[in-house]
What we know:
Chain A is of the alpha+beta class. In chain A, 39% of the residues lie in helices and 21% in strands. Chain A has one domain. Chain A has seven helices and six strands; from the N terminus they run ααααβββββαβαα. Chain A is extended and about 45 Å long. Helices cover 31% and strands 26% of the residues of chain B. In chain B, strand 3 and strand 4 form a beta hairpin. Strand 6 of chain A pairs parallel with strand 7 of chain B, so a sheet runs across the interface.
Amino acid sequence: MxxxxxxxxxxxxxxxxxxxxxxxxxPAAATSPPSASASPTAGASAATxxxxxxxxxxxxxxxxxxxxxxKTYTGDEAQTIYGPVQVKITVKNGKVAGAEAIEYxxxxxxxxxxxxxxxxxxxSEAVAASSARIDTVSGATYTSQGYTSSLQSALDKAGx
Amino acid sequence: xxxxxxxxxxxxxxxxxxxxxxxxxxxxxIDIRDPGPWEPAIGAVTTWLHHVDxxxxxxxxxxxxxxxxxxxxxxxxxxxLVAEVLGLCxxxxxxxxxxxxxxxxxxxxxTGLVKGWAIERASGILRAHGSVNHCVNGGGDIQLAGEASxxxxxxxxxxxxxxxxxxxxxxxxxxxxxxxxxxxERGPHIIDPRAGAPxxxxxxxxxxxxxxxxxxxxxxxxxxxxxxxxxxxxxxPGIEALLVWPQGATSRTPGFTDWESSPGPAGRPxx
Lengths: 160, 271
C-alpha cells in the first residue's frame, strides 16, 4: 500500500489515519467468511471503543458481503494529541472504494467544525488517490521547486 | 484483495532503475523497467538533455536560440539541431492551424515543442542502449516505451489542474506519449498566437498519441485554442484529447475513453 500512503500524504490528517492501517489491513480479510447479512459495519463495531495506550494490540477486522467483493477494514485506533482517531476503509477488488472515520475528536464545537470538512475530504481523497494505481503523472509543467511536493516526486522516491 | 494489492504498486522487482535529473527549469524522471545496469544509458540521456538546454534555452544568453534571436546567428550557422526543431515547429504550426507557433512576439521560441522532442529522443537513446520498457517524464510530459511490468501497461495519472494532488483519470497504454499543457503551476504563460494574449479558455489540455514531439506541440496548441480545441483534436488522426475547463468540467474526444483504464468494479467514472 505504499502508493496509497504517498498519494494521500498531502493531507496531514489522512496520514495519521492511514498509519494505523499500514500493518493490519490485510490478514483479517483472508479468514473472514462472507456474511449473508452484508452489514458493512459488523466488523467495525467490534474494533471500536478501545481507548488504551496499547491500541496497536487491536488488530484490524473485516467484514464482507456475499453480494459483492467489497470488504471493510477497520484500522487500529490512533492516539493523536486531539484525541483518538479510528478509520474504516472499504476495499473492492483491491482498490479503496471508500474511507470513513468511525471515531474522531468531536468534543467541542471547533472539533465538530473541523471534522465537518476534514472527514468528507479524507473520504474523497482516499478514494481518488488510492483507487488509481499509477506509474507516472502527466500535468502542466512543474518547476524544480514544485516537483519536490509533487505526486511524481513521491512515485520516483518509491522506485528508488 | 487482488494479489497485487499486497506489494508496492508499480514495483517491478529488482530490475527497476529510477533517475531524477533537474534540467530546463524542471525535473526529468527516467524510469527503466529492464534488467540493468543502466548507468551508461542514463548518463547519455542526461548529457543529451543538458545539451538540448544549452542549445535551445531562451534563458541562457549564450544558447544558439538566444543568439539567433539577437541576430548573431542564422539558422544555417546554428547547431544543426536548431534547423531540425524549427522544421518540426513549422510542421506543427501547419497542423494546428497556427495555434502552435515558434514565431512568438519576443522572437523565435520553440519551447512548446523542444521538451517533448528532447524526451522522445531520450527514449530513443534508451532504446539504443537496449531498454525496451521505460518511461521518461519531463515536467509532466511523458514518452512511454513497452510496459510497466510483463503484461501490464503503463498507467499515467492525469493530474487535476485545479488541485494537482488529485487525479482526474488514468490513461493506460504501451508505447504511448502523453502531454499536458496548463496553467497549474507556472501561471498563464501560453500565448494564443491569434489573439496575441495569454490563453484562458481552458484549465488544461492533455494529448495522448504516439510521438511526444507532436503531442507536446498539440497540447500547447489545444490549450491556446480553448473552446475550439475539441473539434480540432477530434479531427486530427492519431491523437486523443482530454480538455479541462476553468470550472473543472472535462471534455474528451470520442476515442479518449479507449485509453482510460476501466473505471473499476463499482463502475465509478473518474472523479
